[in-house]
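User: Hi! I have a protein structure encoded as tokens and I'd like to know what sequence might fold into it. I'm fairly new to this, so please keep things simple.
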């Protein structure tokens, strides 16, 4: 900074105070440039996001759990599991669901989508907060009036209101040191205030707040979507678990079938050697044994592939070796499997009343109706009341002209008649079309839900009947095999009869397990689509009706 050696001491003291003021202002601006602590930024954003999500999450959506993205402060209801499993682990069904909930990649993406919508709402709300801004600069100025050096710092605030009004205020502190020319330097303080108020277009609070309103609703829709997804996800993981159990049961049945045929073939060889069995019956036994051996190989391959697919859904390394809790099948066989208490018409009415995706489709109609008003408002002329004032300190100079600064004020109207309205009229017409489309989508959603409920209801009815039939067939096939083996001992049955009885028993065993799994999955899907299935904090499920639950 240039100093004048002949200035009076009081003038020097005044300048030093001015330098102190401008330095403090610059330090405030520099503080805003300082990099924030990453952990502080993350925690601040996370706290705001989850507080906002909690505002939108209604109790009837589901339990508030397992919705926070990795690395955030965990809720007491959230499950937390290890992605790696010790070799030889027996993974129970609840553990499998918990691991999938904690690590499944698609599930994590859905949580992130929920988080991102909350971020969008955070920004939309911020547009109506007092927004601070600031700047600072130092420069050397040379003009016709002379030369000077200038350092300044500026700090201001702007606020947008629901009426469309915008008010801004800015304080600038400048230190001008005149190096040449006939002017006075020193500390310059400038207060700038500006305000605008729309009188026609953009003056309706409903129009001004539309972006915020839509952001609020978008987060609500995403909360519903996430809860709907959770139900579908849990059902899919449980269904996969059951399918792996089914594959293992088929493998065990094929192994048992092979062992039985090995014994039958051994007995047939002894009888053939004794001349009590035709050679062709021995060949039939040997052929059935070879077919059974091939079936074991295929069943083992299918089981391992099904298990690897399940590992992918759990997001655990596919080379991890673990087994499932095969006692789950025994427990399922001990449960009486019947139709739910719903009638088909009751199920349809319940789904239409509770389905979260249908609620989103209905609310989209309301969104489209609001967009029509917004589009119509945009066609109006733009008339604004504007006011501005600049209050400057005296005895200071403009750094360019080196002339003494003066206060100023202005009040007036700004008018834009919107003479070219083609694009605006197009937008309005498109908003009407969008409303019609959303209404059709809502009607289609209802029809789709009705069709889906009728389908899952029929699937459940079929699964219930088939389970009963296949269970009875298995019992009959078991008795038939035992009787045939007994008759064989007395020579009242031949080897072919035994082979046929064993083949039918083996098929009945597989069919019974398949029917049981199909029933369990059909029941889950029925509860899911009717929207009475709720996901518990541990990742498992229960129903909101007095029916059996897991």
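Assistant: Happy to help. Inverse folding works backwards from shape to sequence: for each of the 550 positions I chose a residue that suits the local structure. Here it is:
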């Amino acid at each position: 900074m240039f100093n004048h050696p002949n200035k009076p001491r009081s003038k020097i003291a005044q300048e030093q105070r001015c330098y102190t003021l401008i330095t403090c202002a610059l330090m405030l601006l520099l503080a805003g440039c300082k990099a924030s602590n990453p952990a502080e930024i993350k925690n601040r954003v996370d706290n705001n996001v989850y507080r906002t999500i909690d505002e939108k999450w209604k109790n009837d959506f589901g339990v508030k759990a397992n919705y926070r993205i990795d690395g955030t402060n965990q809720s007491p209801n959230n499950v937390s599991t290890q992605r790696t499993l010790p070799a030889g682990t027996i993974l129970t069904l609840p553990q499998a669901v918990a691991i999938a909930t904690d690590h499944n990649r698609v599930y994590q993406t859905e949580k992130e989508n929920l988080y991102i919508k909350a971020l969008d709402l955070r920004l939309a709300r911020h547009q109506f907060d007092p927004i601070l801004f600031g700047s600072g600069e130092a420069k050397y100025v040379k003009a016709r009036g002379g030369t000077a050096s200038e350092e300044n710092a500026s700090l201001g605030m702007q606020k947008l209101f629901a009426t469309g009004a915008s008010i801004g205020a800015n304080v600038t502190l400048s230190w001008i040191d005149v190096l040449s020319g006939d002017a006075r330097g020193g500390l310059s303080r400038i207060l700038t205030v500006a305000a605008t108020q729309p009188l026609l277009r953009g003056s309706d609070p409903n129009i001004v707040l539309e972006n915020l309103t839509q952001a609020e609703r978008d987060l609500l829709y995403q909360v519903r979507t996430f809860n709907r997804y959770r139900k579908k996800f849990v059902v899919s993981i449980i269904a996969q678990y059951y399918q792996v159990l089914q594959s293992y049961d088929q493998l065990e049945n094929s192994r048992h079938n092979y062992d039985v045929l090995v014994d039958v073939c051994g007995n047939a060889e002894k009888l053939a050697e004794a001349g009590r069995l035709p050679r062709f019956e021995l060949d039939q036994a040997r052929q059935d044994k070879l077919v059974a051996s091939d079936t074991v190989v295929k069943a083992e391959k299918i089981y391992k592939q099904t298990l690897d697919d399940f590992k992918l859904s759990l997001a655990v390394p596919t080379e991890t070796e673990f087994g499932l809790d095969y006692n789950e099948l025994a427990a399922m066989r001990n449960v009486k499997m019947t139709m739910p208490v719903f009638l088909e018409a009751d199920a349809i009415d319940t789904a239409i009343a509770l389905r979260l995706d249908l609620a989103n489709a209905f609310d989209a109609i309301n969104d489209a109706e609001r967009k029509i008003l917004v589009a119509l408002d945009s066609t109006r002329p733009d008339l604004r009341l504007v006011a501005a004032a600049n209050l400057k300190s005296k005895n200071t100079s403009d750094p360019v002209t080196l002339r003494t600064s003066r206060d100023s004020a202005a009040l007036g109207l700004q008018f834009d008649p919107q003479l070219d309205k083609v694009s605006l009229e197009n937008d309005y017409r498109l908003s009407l079309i969008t409303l019609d489309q959303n209404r059709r989508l809502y009607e289609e959603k209802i029809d789709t839900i009705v069709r889906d409920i009728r389908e899952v209801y029929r699937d459940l009815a079929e699964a219930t009947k088939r389970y009963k039939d296949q269970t009875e067939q298995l019992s009959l096939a078991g008795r038939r095999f035992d009787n045939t083996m007994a008759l064989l001992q007395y020579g009242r049955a031949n080897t072919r009869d035994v082979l046929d009885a064993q083949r039918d028993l083996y098929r009945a065993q597989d069919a019974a397990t398949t029917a049981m799994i199909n029933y369990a999955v059909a029941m889950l899907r029925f509860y899911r689509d009717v929207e009475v299935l709720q996901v518990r904090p541990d990742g498992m499920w229960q129903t909101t009706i007095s029916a059996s639950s897991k």
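A useful reference point when you look it over: The radius of gyration is 39 Å. Feel free to ask if any position seems puzzling.
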